[in-house]
Amino acid sequence: MPTIRHDEQRLEKARNDINLLRSQINSVRTGFNPVDPGHPHGLPFNSLTVAAGGDAFPTGVNFKAKLRDIGTAVDTLLSTHEGTFGRLSRALTANLLLGEDAEYKNVNTANTVGLPNTTTHPNTNTTTTSASPNTSTNTTKPS
């Protein structure tokens, strides 16, 4: 019989790692070095400027425009990645909640029909079996 494995610890770790990446992306977008947040090293990419001469110096004007365009493109790309990671984090959260809900429903159904209560404890990967299979006790989800 095939088994479905819901590895809660692995999903939690993935979600935490993704949220860390999101935080780092937001730090970079605002001009902070995520490795050294106590020392800002710049400005947000979409507001980078350079002093390259006045309006009468065409090379400086072109350079300023290119820098602004590239900074805006980098910011847009980082923003897109942050949004993608946000959706992935929410999907992992939903998956964790669905797995938990399914486990409670399975335990309640087994108890209702008189099957022995065998549940796997997520932190220890051990299984417990109730001594009396005819005892019907429903489990409620913690809030």
Protein described:
By secondary structure, this protein is mainly alpha-helical. The protein has helices at 8-29, 58-112, and strands at residues 118-121, 126-129. The chain has a two-stranded antiparallel ribbon with strand order 1-2. Strand 1 (118-121) and strand 2 form a beta hairpin. Helix 1 packs antiparallel against helix 2. It is rod-shaped, with a radius of gyration of 26 Å.
Main sheet overview: 2 strands, antiparallel
Helix content: 40-55%
Structural class: mainly alpha
Shape field: rod-shaped
| Count of DSSP H/I helices | 2
Task: Tell me the series of helices and strands, N- to C-terminal.
Answer: HHEE
Gyration radius (Cα, Å) is 26 Å
Strand order of the largest sheet: 1-2
**Model regions low in confidence, pLDDT < 50 over at least 5 residues:** 124-138
Give the overall average pLDDT.
77
Count of beta strands: 2
- The proportion of strand residues reads 5-15%
Query: Ends: how far apart?
Result: 33 Å
List keywords for this structure.
143 residues, two-stranded antiparallel ribbon, mainly alpha
What order do the helices and strands come in, and which of them pair?
Elements: H1 8-29, H2 58-112, E1 118-121, E2 126-129
Antiparallel strand pairs: 1-2
Helix pairs in contact: 1-2
Give a quick rundown of the structure.
The protein has helices at residues 8-29, 58-112; strands at 118-121, 126-129. The protein has 143 residues and is mainly alpha-helical.
